[in-house]
Amino acid sequence: MGFAHMGFDVLHTVIPFNTARAVHTNLLVVWLLSGFMGAAYYIIPEESEHELVNVNLAYVQLISLAVVGVIAIIGYHFNYWEGRKFLEIPRPLDWLVVVNVLTFLGLILATLFKGKKRTTTALVLSMGLLFAAVLYLPGMIWFDNQTMDSFFRWWVVHLWVEGVWELIMGGILAFLLIKITGVDREVIEKWLYVIVGLTFISGILGTGHHYYFIGAPKYWLMIGGIFSAMEPLAFLGMALFAVAMYRKGEKKHPNKIALSWTLGTAIVSFVGAGLLGLAHTMPQVNLYTHGTLVTAMHGHLAFWGAYGMIVLAIISYTMPNMTGRKLYDSGIGTLAFWLSNIGMIGMTVAFGVAGVAQVYLERIMGLEFGDVQKEIQVHFAILVICATMFTTGIALFIYEFIKYGLPNNEALETK
Questions:
Q1: What is the CB neighbour count within 10 angstroms for residue 385?
Q2: Deepest in the core among 285, 300, 322, 329, taking most CB within 10 A?
């Protein structure tokens, strides 16, 4: 897609743009959900001090989720989809996802309530996962009216990424800070209550910024504008929370890579999801930026900072514990962190500059869409370079992940 924006639109004859975009966004969602589930399978048993109630069923759940995801991605290339943005998955696969998620929730909730403890961290994480499952259902309601369909579709998309996923992020972040900084659990979990409160206050009615121009009543302009402006507070709370806990920490944890990803999550998510979201969320501004590359600027850094990085943080923390291989002092891991983050920030800047130019030329000067795309091609050359840097960083992370391999005797003895 980046090469197409540069003027080298040869691949779209093989994979059309709408297919490539659906694959791009759906792979992100499946990967993030897999990461959240994996984090829960590690955190809930540890927090509750009880082994997962059925490990074999958890493997079945994981494999079946992967199979459904692969079938969906392949199906997109043959126009087997619903065609609804972000919810393209066909209805028969929707029902399989529901069964899969119910199995997952049954496993973690049974483990939690059979355990010796029910900590705030575990409860917030479980609550986020449960609400994520419930909010998937409105996206399965069929409407003949486009406005009604969009209205309820955003219940899934917005209330996931700017609502309950923040609870999942907060739960994982709290767990990591407890383990890495050594700060007292009671202190960290008090911050968690504040974050949950800010998320619910701003996130629910903040859905209104998706209702500006879909045919919904005018009052959503005011509601969406006011509460969307409050949404950065939750991410600011997470950033201040993480930095404060790091500074308060009494022990020097050896896993610096996990610490870097954890602190990076809090800071980058505030910039990407908080500040860049605020930059174009007011209706007076969104009137011009809606559907432009300014949205891509916000979306890429927000998803990376808030959710991509927290998944990599929990992987970086858990792998040494599960395998017994203490590879967290590796220079490759550090290089992966910096290359991926610098690359993503570069992509965000490229999207932002191209988006502002697009808004001015197309929405203010009145140039045709195709003519504007030619004028901003140079910015996508920078974007592709930065994307290459980002991809290199992720490839290095995957290389480190593979090096950990299976658990060895040291890990088994530690348990």
A1: 15
A2: 300
Plot region of 291 (φ>0 → left; ψ -120 to 50 → alpha; else → beta) = left
177-217: pLDDT as tens digits? 999 988 888 888 888 888 888 888 888 899 999 999 999 99
C-beta of residue 198 within 8 angstroms of C-beta of residue 233: yes
CA dihedral 23, 24, 30, 36 (to 10 degrees): 180
Query: Would you call 173 helix, strand, or coil by DSSP?
Result: helix
Share of the chain above pLDDT 70, in %: 97
10 three-state secondary structure = coil
d(CA 178, CA 252): 13
In angstroms, how far is CA 370 from the centroid of its own chain? 31
pLDDT digits (tens, 9 = 90+) for 115-141: 998 999 999 999 999 999 999 999 888
* 323, 413 Cβ separation under 8 angstroms: no
Q: At what angle do helices 232-248 and 219-230 cross, to 10 degrees?
A: 10
Nearest to 390 by CA among 328, 352, 348: 348
Task: Estimate the share of the chain in helix, then strand, then coil, as percent rounded to the nearest 5.
Answer: 80, 0, 20
Structure tokens at 277: 């979201």
Half-sphere exposure in the Cβ direction for 376 (13 Å, CA): 28
Q: Is 145 exposed, middle or buried (0-12, 13-18, 19+ CB in 10 A)?
A: exposed
- Of 234, 225, 232, 233, whose CA–CA distance to 207 is shortest? 225
DSSP string, 39-93: HHHHHHHHHHTS--S-HHHHHHHHHHHHHHHHHHHHHHTTT-S---TT--S-HHH
Phi-psi region of 146 (alpha: psi -120 to 50; beta: other; left: phi over 0): alpha
Question: Are 160 and 233 spatial neighbours (Cβ–Cβ below 8 Å)?
Answer: no
Tokens of 7: 């003027």
Question: Is the overall model pTM greater than 0.90, yes or no?
Answer: yes
